[in-house]
Amino acid sequence: MKLVIIGSVAAGTSVAAKARRNNEDAQITIYDRDYDISYSGCGIPYYVGGEVESRDDLTPRDAAFFKKRYQLDVLTRHNVTAIDHEAQTLTVENLETGETFTDSYDRLVLATGASSIIPPIPGVDSDNVFPIRNIQNAETTRNFVDATSPKHATIIGAGFIGLEMAEQLKLRGVDVTVIERIPQVMPPLDKDMACRVEDHLEKNGIELLLGETVTELVGDGHVERVVTESGKTIDTDLVILSVGVRPNTELAKSIGVEIGETGAIAINERMETNVENVYAAGDVAESFSLVTGKPIWRPLGSTANKMGRALGDLLTGGDLEHRGILGTGIFKVFGQAVAQTGLSEREARELCYEVEVLHNTKPDKPAYMGGKDLTIKAIGDRATRQLLGVQIVGFDGVDKRIDVFVTAMTFKAKVDDLFHLDLAYAPPFSTTKDPVMYTGMALANSMDETARLITPGELQKRIDAGEDMQIIDTRKASQFEKACVDCAVNIPLGDLRTAAKDMDKDKPTVVYCNGGVTGNAAQNVLRNLGFTDVYNLSGGNKNYQLFKKYGN
């Protein structure tokens, strides 16, 4: 078998390596128009910031390594310009010499990845405007920062890479403004979780311009000012483009490969395209959601590696398949970790799930061991009692908890199952009732109607509509006076049983504390006293105040 792979980063090299492990006789060639192969694109911000010292740390393997280890040919700076899928040949241009030649294949893998979106803004081609996608981008950006010691940077786009770049440049002493066209950072998150990231960024000196669109980069070949649609002007020394990426599907389209609804190549679980003997993997290809079963596109190195390994096995007689993804992601900014998996609340409601939402703020370990609060937002489906998605913001233990949720969701565990997990416990690592367990318990109780939850957004809608409700703040008077929910009255938990005698048991009642625990205790008291419609405010007053500050 003659296997040709176009693209040599995560997916392409994984296909080749697995195929060679399975089959010593296959002839394997990889073509790539770039200079570097098998590099860590996710490490680029840390190289620009100096946390990663050498570019070699991001490019641990080269063509010589693959030739020696796997006896396969990796030809960099070789651009495949055309494919004849009927003859099963391709035309290749050597970008260093200009020579063109023809090669043939039995099986062809498209692993052409994705490229940075360059917005059509006047001045975007200036010498101090940098996309962040490959090693050349990284080196050019770092060299500029090293040589010019800029005082201010403007970052366009507030996704993973944009926020990581904001952190790294700030740590180098550069003032940073982040501009994002939608009114929040991290578009995959719900606003009530993104606001926690925004608050943390601002506390660390990052200026955020949200709901703003850049219309012009002003300067004669060198940007000096950034202008937004609302008329704001930002003096700046460099601009980072982080507005997203798009799959490199040009070659695929040229031979009639079907493009899916996400804009990436449509494939099945065997990563076959609609064109015979042509396959696709990595950032250029769609996956499918383990929650909905529908196509999903999440260009991440972890997914590309998995797809590549499975495809390399399939092409050499194995039976691995691509099983789909949840769209899990995680990043950190100024010590704060942000993770998400599955559907957001917004997506779940758009897909008409019967949604149950919990905001659970708990320490990652006991306070006497230095525990710090992490906030878990869990979205469940009342019809099936399965988790639809989880978002976590905190400082320690976020990665551990998101991975537990991912595992549970992958194997279709119900929210009720989470409490029964035998998770590792010792005070340096966790609380006796781990936040994951508590999340399952609280969601299950809410679905059972024994401890119903209401989100700040839902509560505010009912308040604004003038609904006749009883809203009870169960905290101390001193806490109530500092900040409270609109229309609330203060009845500390210890006084609630007495005060309940004068309350309407049939009127909708909402109780809350700071984070939710005392609110739940108050909810139980009222239910046991015969109150028929009692809710605990999800995430308590802390969550409500963030909602009020940042909107929904």
TrEMBL record:
SUPFAM superfamilies assigned to the protein according to its UniProt record, in alphabetical order: FAD/NAD(P)-binding domain, FAD/NAD-linked reductases, dimerisation (C-terminal) domain, Rhodanese/Cell cycle control phosphatase
Pfam families given in the database record: Pyr_redox_2, Pyr_redox_dim, Rhodanese
Known cofactor(s): FAD
Gene3D superfamilies: FAD/NAD(P)-binding domain, Rhodanese-like domain
Keywords: FAD, Flavoprotein, Oxidoreductase, Redox-active center
Residue intervals passing through the bilayer: none
InterPro entries per record: FAD-bd_OxRdtase, FAD/NAD-bd_sf, FAD/NAD-binding_dom, FAD/NAD-linked_Rdtase_dimer_sf, Pyr_nucl-diS_OxRdtase_dimer, Rhodanese-like_dom, Rhodanese-like_dom_sf
Chain ranges of the Rhodanese domain: 465-549
Presence of keyword Oxidoreductase: yes
Family of this protein: Belongs to the class-III pyridine nucleotide-disulfide oxidoreductase family.
Protein name per Swiss-Prot or TrEMBL: FAD-dependent oxidoreductase
